[in-house]
Amino acid sequence: MRFRLWLMTLACMALQAQELRLRYPLPTPASVEVVEGTVYRQVDGGKLEFDLYRPAQAQRSPVVIFLNSIGSSDLKRWPIYQDWGRVVTARGLAGITMDSRLESVASDFRVLLDYVRGHAAELRVDPDNVSMWVCSANVRAGLPIAMDPANRELKAAVIYYGAGEATELRLDLPLLYVRVGTDDVSQNRAIDALVARALTMNAPLSVINLPSARHAFDALDDDPVTHDTVERTLDFLEQHAKASYQATLSAGVTLGKAAGAVYREDWSAAIAEFRKIAAERPRDSEIRRRLGDALMSSGAYSAAVTEYEQSIALGNQRSAWIAYSAAVASLKMGKRDAAMGWIEKFKDVAPLKARLARDEDFAALRSDPHFREIAGLGDR
Q1: Residue 254 — pLDDT band, cuts 50, 70, 90?
Q2: Which of 111, 189, 229, 309 is most buried as measured by Cβ atoms within 10 A of its Cβ?
Q3: Ranges 121-135, 223-237, 358-372: which has the least confidence
Q4: What is the mean pLDDT of the chain?
Q5: Which among 199, 209, 155 has a CA at the least distance from the CA of 179?
């Protein structure tokens, strides 16, 4: 069913190709330099080419590659692709439209990245700062390419109204997904499944859902919804091409992985990621607390208490709540005296004192007179 839909979509795209234009204001022709027909790969029986659109006089522009994964030899010259190639130049980016072969899209894309790197000076582009834009039937092969960690040059990806499968999701690749609500139901369900999976992984995902838009809205509908969505797409591409933005996102990848693992209750992964961060930031009391919580959830109670002690010693402002967790961990190990020692540290915090009376983790202390006094349980 999905393959038949892909073929139908491809056929419709080919029929309309000579008429479709981007429904968004384009930069003036004088502001864009166009270099057509650069050969990037020799293949049996021919060659593969790309067209380059870059800001006039720009010296080192980040690049947006408009992926062709349907094996078309003329897609790069479709007016809609030419318009997208031009429009990104208004944000200081270069656009590349490309040839490919249906049977070797991933390989062709990799060769194109290598060609751009080898000719970056003459192309006047930054080969380490590349984004991908892919739509419709192209997403089927494009999504796995975007998620391949070997394509390290990719710093962001945009997907318009298409679905694909990816074995792994890159947690270092910001992704903008534009979903149209009137599209094929099976395709949208595939998109929704991917989005749900990405959120479970805590991947850097942004979603724009257009409830009443139609497939290829950017080429068919000259209306405020299209204008706003293209604008937001250009904002996304521009922001993620900035070195400062990339550095901030890169610095947060490990913490993002740890948080995602906590969400999934994958405690071994969470502990491993929090340990990495703690090694890099040994005086971060909050990371110590979160590592303690992950250890606690995994059943490593002694190690959890050690991290809680470190967190408090480093001045964590949540010390009373940390002491509460340490008391529970101590009881899990059968250390009643240690638990009472931790309870003394938060006994004057009203919300925590109130929890003592009803928390089953403290059932083993219910007969202790001192505990009953602290918890306000009164005499037996």
Answers
A1: very high
A2: 229
A3: 358-372
A4: 93
A5: 209
Indicate the Cα dihedral angle 284, 290, 292, 293, nearest 10°.
Answer: 170
The H-assigned helical ranges of the chain are 2-16, 79-87, 105-118, 120-123, 139-147, 185-200, 217-220, 224-240, 243-251, 253-264, 267-280, 285-298, 301-313, 319-332, 336-346, 350-358, 369-375
Distance CA 268, CA 274 (A): 10
- Determine the Cα–Cα distance for residues 323 and 346; give it in Å rounded to an integer: 7
- The closest alpha carbon to 95, from 119, 140, 65, belongs to 65
- The CA-CA-CA angle for residues 101, 188, 64, to 5°, reads 45
d(CA 232, CA 206): 11
* Identity of the amino acid at 45: G
Phi and psi, residue 73, nearest 5°: -90, -5
The sheet with strand 205-210 has its strands ordered as 32-43, 46-55, 94-98, 61-66, 125-135, 154-160, 175-180, 205-210
Q: Say which amino acid occupies 14.
A: A
Pair of tokens at residue 226: 């299209």
pLDDT band at 376 (very low <50, low <70, confident <90, very high): confident
Asked whether 46 and 99 are in contact (CB, 8 A), the reply is no
* Eight-class DSSP state of 154: E
Transcribe 74-89 into DSSP letters: SGGGSHHHHHHHHHGG
CB 69 within 8 A of CB 145: yes
Torsion of CA 215, 221, 225, 227, to 10 degrees: 110
Residues 6+ apart with CB under 8 A from 296: 304, 325, 328, 329
Provide the residue type at 96 as one letter.
I
Reported as type and span, the H/E element at residue 23 is: none
Tally the residues of the chain.
380
Q: What is the DSSP-derived secondary structure letter of residue 97?
A: E
Query: What predicted TM-score, i.e. pTM, was given to this entire model?
Result: 0.89
Question: What are the pLDDT digits (tens) for 211-253?
Answer: 999 999 999 999 999 999 999 999 999 999 999 999 999 999 9
